[in-house]
Amino acid sequence: VYHLDLYRLSGPADLTNIGWDEIVGARALVIVEWPERAGDRLPDDAVRIHLAHVPGDPERRALSVTGTGRTSAVVVDGARTPGAEGAR
């Protein structure tokens, strides 16, 4: 599992310095905060998780999960299906 916080990066060119290509090429779970800093170097097929504040309730967040490609869409759909292997 890799956790990358890209907040301090100025853009995609900085990714080389943190070993980006090796990390995203590994058979691993890669969690990226501030993914917009990676620009077009984000994988095409990924699970995107977005958290947003719930209006009027500062203690709650709304969660949306989407797959951006064929494999990630299968993962997301499987997680949403009651009784699916690995679904909680």
Topology record:
Layout: E1 2-5, H1 20-25, E2 30-33, E3 47-54, E4 57-67, H2 70-80
Parallel strand pairs: 1-2
Antiparallel strand pairs: 3-4
List keywords for this structure.
88 residues; two-stranded antiparallel sheet; alpha+beta
Gap between N and C termini: 20 Å
Proportion of residues in β-strands: 25-35%
pLDDT < 50 stretches: none
**What is the number of beta strands?**
4
What can be said about the biggest beta sheet?
2 strands, parallel
Shape verdict: globular
Amount of helix? 10-25%
Counted by DSSP, the helix tally is 2
Q: Which class of secondary structure composition applies to the elements?
A: alpha+beta
The mean pLDDT is 90
| Biggest β-sheet: strands ordered side by side in the sheet | 1-2
| C-alpha Rg (nearest Å) | 15 Å
The string of secondary-structure elements, in order, is EHEEEH
Task: Please summarize what this structure is.
The protein has 88 residues and is an alpha+beta fold.
